[in-house]
């Protein structure tokens, strides 16, 4: 972080749909040096509108909000107002939340147990061109990088309109993993795994896991063992 970035007062908008949480964050930020809160939004639509009106340096963005969620709001803000950076401030640190937010253009990602100093550090880090990530999020990114290097690459064009994550779930089913094991490997909940399985079954017309295994082999997603 440069000394200039440290000295600059960052103009911040807070976006969170829970009034008590939003007001608490605004109050906390008001006590911190180097931060000026210039607006607060109750959902993603309002956040995008506020950015257009007040041109903040940074938006502290919750993810799960009505009307327009934090990922979509981040995508729109970065596309329409590239001078404004986004730092996610959320309860969730699972892959289903983290990676879409970063892909949408968020430069920072904190969970709501972050302290005031950590929030200030993340805000000024993104203003100086660095990433504002909590230590836990940095570890998760490194873990994912390692997993990506060791896991077979997903085919660039998945069959029958399957998403990348649905294809990952299919491959793990074909390897014999149950829902809990799939959830642990992908760092998502068992309920999320079930949702992906229901979606891929609906898209492919499959009825059970045995059919899913045959489908994966039939589509060339999994190769039979040599020998």
UniProtKB/TrEMBL annotation:
Domain Response regulatory: 11-127
One Pfam family per UniProt: Response_reg
HTH luxR-type domain boundaries: 155-220
Residues with the 4-aspartylphosphate modification: 62
SUPFAM superfamilies named among the record's database cross-references: C-terminal effector domain of the bipartite response regulators, CheY-like
UniProt entry tagged with the keyword DNA-binding: yes
Domain of life: Bacteria
Keyword Ion transport set for record: no
InterPro entries: CheY-like_superfamily (IPR011006), NreC/VraR/RcsB-like_REC (IPR058245), Sig_transdc_resp-reg_C-effctor (IPR016032), Sig_transdc_resp-reg_receiver (IPR001789), Tscrpt_reg_LuxR_C (IPR000792), WalR-like (IPR039420)
UniProt-listed PROSITE patterns: HTH_LUXR_1, HTH_LUXR_2, RESPONSE_REGULATORY
GO molecular function terms attached to this record: DNA binding
Keyword annotations: DNA-binding, Phosphoprotein, Transcription, Transcription regulation
Protein's UniProt name: DNA-binding NarL/FixJ family response regulator
Organism whose genome encodes this protein: Streptomyces africanus
Native organism taxonomy: Bacteria, Bacillati, Actinomycetota, Actinomycetes, Kitasatosporales
